[in-house]
Amino acid sequence: ATGSESTLRQRSTVPKHTPPTDSNTAATEDAPKKVIKSVFTSAEKTNSLIALAGLTALAIVSRFYKINEPDEVVFDEVHFGKFASYYLRGSYFFDVHPPLAKMMLAAMGYFIGYDGHFLFDNIGDKYNDNNVPYIGLRALPAFLGAMTVPLVYMTMREAGFPILTCALAAFFVIFDNMLVTQTRLILLDSMLVFFMMCSIYSYVRFYKTRNNPFSLKWWSWMIATGISIALTTSVKMVGLFTVATIGVAVIWDLWELLDIRRRLTMQQFMNHFYARAIGLILIPVVVYLFWFYVHFAILINSGPGDDFMSTEFQETLKGNTMADGIYVKYGDNITIRHKDTSVYLHSHAHNYPLRYDDGRISSAGQQVTGYSHEDPNNLWQIYSDNVENTKIGNQVKDKDVIRLLHVATSSWLLAHDVASPTMTTNEEITTYSTNEDGSRFNETTFQIILESGGDKLRTMASNFKLLHQSTKVAIWTHSQKLPDWGFEQQEVNGNKNLVQKSNLWLSDNIEGKNASEIDQESSKAVKTRSFILKFLELQGKMISHNAGLTDSHPYQSSPIEWPFLVRGISFWTENETRKQIYLIGNPLGMWIAVASLAVIIGVSGADLLSRRRGFYPLNQDVQKRFYYATGFFFIGWIFHYIPFFLMGRALFLHHYMPALVFSYMVLAAVHGFIFIEGVDGPISDPGPETRPRQLQRAIVPVIAYATGIILMAIHLGSFLFFAPLSYGTSAPSVAGLARRKFLPQWDYHFAK
């Protein structure tokens, strides 16, 4: 190398105690007197396209290899395949994730002639036996999983990295076992990662146009970024992590624009702010809402998700029983059913034992329980809160104070300050005979509080609480069964936690109403409700139910375990052939990626400390590339990983997939930082006020190629070693499984 190129072989081209010159604000004497439009030569562009094409072909092969195996339902295909079928049927269902990816699967099924007849009920159900075009359904996530690879490559390339670095990042993504397994099944993560990379790629392209603000190209890439982050969030709510990643970059960009040295007036700065608000906030919100509008437009029929929604929501669905609801009147004999557990409020001529097993004393009153079957002992007659019962024939309204008479035993429902059978903090619920004096009248009065269905009590449509007037407890039941003396029926007690959602009951039947009376009093017409109200209700349900997924699972894991692959997930097994699919990443590749993340922290810390003491170990352009590009990918890893530590729900290894892609991009960038000398530049588009910029060329020495090949060989070897568990197309022997058990927590099937 000669001339200015020879200086680029040094990591730093300035005296140790001299701050480096900013090449964007001052040109050197050797700088060309023209604006450079592209740093890459035509030969480099050709080589880059060849590398991109080859890597894309490898990605397609890795995802589509024997995609027909197994021809059975695998892991969460039981959920997302089922949801696609419900879309094709138009049957309403509930899921904690936004609708886009599931609608994409349904659209794929529609185009290949699938009618949604199969409901993916169990892992291991045969596709071919049920005439399910599962290969076509799997082809969509497989294709998008393959297309993630060129996006990774192009993102690295647009960020200014040499072909070798870009190829390394793409290669790591191609041959990661977790990414392969998860993207060749009927699952959502393929779409999530694809749209995430669309977002990152679009933002990098947008940032490169910063010298031409408000140009067509500038607007196009900003809007593309906004649409992409909306699509990411429309697949899963964790797409908000992508929003946060880009949001931090945008805030930093705006902070830089606010610098007085930029010579922008406040009006010009506000124009930048408003433009980004439109492109990166308003447009994404509109796109996100659009998919829910389509979701509601498709799911117009009653389905398995009805019970998750309010009465008002359910009444908008064709065939929902809420439309059959009739108004309840004083004097009616009704059945009362618990909303969460579906048991009836029940009583019978048997008493609580005077003394419980733990020595506590009860009232020995008549038992009130939760019973799961229809029975005459489920009937209760509604009375008003006065002895004369003057409201007979009037409709029961919200906030009315009522009494409930158990028809079969002629006794009043009663709550009092006696501990319940299984919960000492809750009150016992019993009954009080009508033959007794009226001294306990106040203990038999309850206020009915309607939570949905309007201001009048209706069968099926109204969810309500029964609030005891004297002791201020709500009638409640839970899944715990009573002992033999209670015939193993559910305990009913008085709950002091009045805001608990499981306090809700509904009336599902009125005794003695004939068909003509029901037809006269009910309205079977499907009702309408505003889109915004439906969206807000569904969004709230999604968030609350997602947070409530706290039940333990044998294959759940904690976030601290994911980068180190402490636990995997058993996706599928076949006893006859001893084949299995076990979700696990590429161990060697992931562990090396973790080391590269540590390098980022170490180098950043050392650079900051050195500069604090007046030493400038990094060339200005190398430093900028390290912080602005590699640092951006590192921030992506942070935002797609750390938030999981704050979640209380059950988590699994596949939640690490988006962060894993960022970690591989960081690994490739760190390799380039260590072994490649200098950077290619400038990479940003020139603008009308761009100063002359000096052409810089990164030098890729032989050692960079050698170490890159070694890394690829290690990664590929590890991938192939674990491939039988990733594809499930062959069954390793017991000895083979033992060799693949790097960690004792990897609980393979058929390992003995």
From TrEMBL:
<dbReference type="Pfam" id="PF02366">
    <property type="entry name" value="PMT"/>
</dbReference>
<dbReference type="InterPro" id="IPR032421">
    <property type="entry name" value="PMT_4TMC"/>
</dbReference>
<keyword id="KW-0256">Endoplasmic reticulum</keyword>
<feature type="domain" description="MIR">
    <location>
        <begin position="393"/>
        <end position="452"/>
    </location>
</feature>
<keyword id="KW-0472">Membrane</keyword>
<feature type="transmembrane region" description="Helical">
    <location>
        <begin position="273"/>
        <end position="294"/>
    </location>
</feature>
<keyword id="KW-1133">Transmembrane helix</keyword>
<feature type="region of interest" description="Disordered">
    <location>
        <begin position="1"/>
        <end position="29"/>
    </location>
</feature>
<dbReference type="InterPro" id="IPR036300">
    <property type="entry name" value="MIR_dom_sf"/>
</dbReference>
<feature type="transmembrane region" description="Helical">
    <location>
        <begin position="626"/>
        <end position="644"/>
    </location>
</feature>
<dbReference type="Pfam" id="PF02815">
    <property type="entry name" value="MIR"/>
</dbReference>
<dbReference type="GO" id="GO:0005789">
    <property type="term" value="C:endoplasmic reticulum membrane"/>
</dbReference>
<feature type="transmembrane region" description="Helical">
    <location>
        <begin position="186"/>
        <end position="207"/>
    </location>
</feature>
<feature type="transmembrane region" description="Helical">
    <location>
        <begin position="132"/>
        <end position="153"/>
    </location>
</feature>
<feature type="transmembrane region" description="Helical">
    <location>
        <begin position="656"/>
        <end position="677"/>
    </location>
</feature>
<dbReference type="Pfam" id="PF16192">
    <property type="entry name" value="PMT_4TMC"/>
</dbReference>
<feature type="transmembrane region" description="Helical">
    <location>
        <begin position="588"/>
        <end position="606"/>
    </location>
</feature>
<feature type="domain" description="MIR">
    <location>
        <begin position="325"/>
        <end position="385"/>
    </location>
</feature>
<feature type="transmembrane region" description="Helical">
    <location>
        <begin position="698"/>
        <end position="723"/>
    </location>
</feature>
<keyword id="KW-0328">Glycosyltransferase</keyword>
<keyword id="KW-0808">Transferase</keyword>
<protein>
    <recommendedName>
        <fullName>Dolichyl-phosphate-mannose--protein mannosyltransferase</fullName>
        <ecNumber>2.4.1.109</ecNumber>
    </recommendedName>
</protein>
<feature type="transmembrane region" description="Helical">
    <location>
        <begin position="100"/>
        <end position="120"/>
    </location>
</feature>
<feature type="domain" description="MIR">
    <location>
        <begin position="454"/>
        <end position="510"/>
    </location>
</feature>
<comment type="pathway">
    <text>Protein modification; protein glycosylation.</text>
</comment>
<dbReference type="GO" id="GO:0004169">
    <property type="term" value="F:dolichyl-phosphate-mannose-protein mannosyltransferase activity"/>
</dbReference>
<comment type="similarity">
    <text>Belongs to the glycosyltransferase 39 family.</text>
</comment>
<dbReference type="InterPro" id="IPR027005">
    <property type="entry name" value="PMT-like"/>
</dbReference>
<dbReference type="InterPro" id="IPR016093">
    <property type="entry name" value="MIR_motif"/>
</dbReference>
<keyword id="KW-0677">Repeat</keyword>
<feature type="transmembrane region" description="Helical">
    <location>
        <begin position="159"/>
        <end position="179"/>
    </location>
</feature>
<feature type="compositionally biased region" description="Polar residues">
    <location>
        <begin position="1"/>
        <end position="27"/>
    </location>
</feature>
<dbReference type="InterPro" id="IPR003342">
    <property type="entry name" value="ArnT-like_N"/>
</dbReference>
<feature type="transmembrane region" description="Helical">
    <location>
        <begin position="219"/>
        <end position="252"/>
    </location>
</feature>
<comment type="function">
    <text>Transfers mannose from Dol-P-mannose to Ser or Thr residues on proteins.</text>
</comment>
<keyword id="KW-0812">Transmembrane</keyword>
